[in-house]
Design brief:
With 540 residues, this protein is mostly helical. It has 27 helices and no strands.
Length: 540
């Protein structure tokens, strides 16, 4: 799978204009039977401009309730949801806006951005095709459309779009870098390098072009030349963790260990959870004898992914080095259970067992190795446990490469989606806990004769607390069927779907709960998106 950061673009025409309005107006106006929807829209946009997304949603909700035929409140509510990483909610609001006004281009663009973040590239392509027809002179729209085609391996279409970009904006570098990416996808590095050189000629300060050039040179093992372009890229933007990691690899291949270590340290200062950075720094620390520090790096990796057998084996060898033989045996055993044909694991475990006086266990391991070696020499197989068929990261394909540093995939350095969007959310550490309605809500439902619905809700809540997740979800679903405005039922069902790792059902429920006033639902959506981003930095 290609590796790219989905940083997206929105045209300056939908930037929120900051309006100096008093938030006190809202409380006064809401008391009236008829609200001033223009003022509510202005206050909502003002809140959006000041990054108070949940407050802006509450005002856009008021306008939607009073004037559901308007497209603007749906669009701006979609903007707020996008900032909160609620991409599915943003896409749904954009769809509502388009149904009311199919001629507003920014709505298609915003929905396209949401689809990109949901990895729904064919849907994003449809929206970008529409909006490029509406705004044919907007270069960034064509840029993002080309990247969407690259993501779907539609290289002929991507080629056509990059030709349009180069023809219209010949003095801009991004058309050439995109064309280079198409050639890289086709494994034609010579043609790709030609277009990268054209990009640098068009804009010698283009960070992506220098990075792409360095990556190609590194793939050709021209490490000194690659470092020169990495240096220029980092001079233009020092805060590039992945570029630092790749430059560190060049230093490593040139035996410049001190420089490589400095680059890994800087990369991890920028991205403390960068998986490859920790893995490679751990190996480098092991190479220079800093065993305890190397163990810290592998401990971090295994805290993210306990199933990483390469990290487990490396930690085992380090534990053995520092005299923690029982810890080493534990890790060697874990690896052997996953890879019963990995004979070196038996050899190392035998050595560790002898150090603690377990000669019988050591003998068994050594006999197993001997039998396997004889079997291999004479071409017959020995009975053994079946190796588990699990999807492995790149560094785990062959355990014999346990000491090999992991490289970024230099053939997959896709240029970033262009963006002016930056999202924030208050209270990102919101804990995901089930929620009961407050006393006023209970009172309103009882007065409306909804006792049976409340009883169903309470039963579902108790099922959830007892750990009966599927039964609880069914109960909250029955509640929602009776009342599609029961915010706590959506919220709780969304939390339970998250517990089942069912994100496609969880996020829409949490989004609906947020619309209905439980604004901490957006914090949980944001937190879930951050977890997915953390996981994306693992080795492929």
């Amino acid at each position: 799978m290609r590796r790219s950061r989905f940083i997206v673009f929105i045209t300056t025409s939908i930037r929120v204009v900051v309006l100096v309005l008093s938030f006190l107006w809202g409380g006064e106006l809401i008391c009236h039977a008829q609200i001033n929807t223009d003022r509510m829209m202005n206050i909502g946009r003002n809140a959006l401009a000041y990054d108070d997304y949940v407050l802006s949603i509450s005002y856009f909700n008021l306008v939607i309730n009073y004037k559901p035929h308007l497209y603007e409140p749906y669009f701006y509510r979609g903007v707020a949801k996008f900032y909160l990483d609620d991409y599915s909610g943003a896409a749904l609001d954009c769809t509502q806006a388009i149904q009311r006004n199919p001629y507003f281009p920014n709505t298609y663009e915003l929905r396209g951005l949401a689809y990109i973040n949901m990895n729904r590239f064919p849907d994003a392509i449809r929206d970008y095709r529409t909006v490029t027809d509406m705004l044919p002179e907007n270069r960034s729209l064509w840029h993002n459309l080309a990247l969407c085609y690259i993501e779907t391996d539609s290289l002929d279409q991507a080629d056509n779009i990059t030709d349009i970009i180069i023809r219209r904006w010949a003095k801009q570098a991004d058309g050439y870098t995109l064309k280079a990416q198409v050639f890289l996808q086709r494994k034609d590095t010579a043609a790709a390098e030609t277009y990268i050189d054209k990009a640098i000629e068009a804009d010698k300060y283009n960070i992506g072009a220098h990075t792409a050039k360095a990556n190609i040179l590194m793939s050709h093992e021209q490490y000194n030349e690659a470092i020169q372009h990495f240096d220029e890229s980092l001079r233009l933007n020092p805060k590039q963790a992945n570029t630092l990691i790749n430059r560190a690899l060049c230093h490593y291949h040139l035996n410049h260990y001190r420089d490589a270590m400095a680059d890994y340290d800087r990369a991890l200062d920028l991205e403390p959870k960068n998986f490859i950075g920790h893995y490679n720094r751990g190996l480098l620390r092991a190479n220079v004898g800093e065993d305890n520090l190397a163990i810290e790096d592998f401990n971090f990796i295994l805290s993210i992914d306990p199933d990483d057998m390469m990290a487990t084996f490396n930690r085992a060898t380090l534990l053995e080095n520092i005299g923690d033989y029982r810890g080493a045996i534990r890790d060697y055993t874990t690896v052997i259970n996953e890879f019963p044909k990995f004979l070196y694991g038996y050899e190392r475990r035998a050595a560790a067992r002898r150090m603690i006086g377990d000669n019988a266990g050591a003998n068994r391991d050594e006999e197993h190795v001997l039998k396997e070696q004889i079997a291999h020499r004479y071409g017959y197989s020995t009975p053994t446990s079946r190796q588990k068929n699990k999807t492995r990261k790149k560094s785990q394909i062959n355990l014999d490469d346990y000491q090999k540093l992991v490289e970024e995939d230099t053939q997959e350095q896709v240029p970033e989606y262009e963006s002016e969007y930056r999202g924030k959310v208050q209270n990102r550490e919101q804990e995901a806990k089930l929620m009961l309605p407050n006393e006023n809500t209970y009172k309103l439902y009882r007065e409306a004769g909804k006792e049976e619905m409340l009883h169903t809700f309470e039963q579902a809540f108790q099922q959830a607390q007892a750990g009966n997740i599927n039964e609880a979800i069914e109960g909250f679903t029955r509640v929602i069927e009776q009342n599609d405005h029961f915010a706590e039922a959506y919220f709780n069902r969304g939390i339970l779907h998250l517990l089942l790792d069912d994100t496609p059902h969880a996020i829409p429920d949490l989004s609906q709960a947020g619309e209905l006033g439980i604004y901490q639902a957006y914090n949980i959506i944001k937190k879930n998106q951050n977890i997915k981003k953390d996981q994306s930095v693992k080795k492929k």
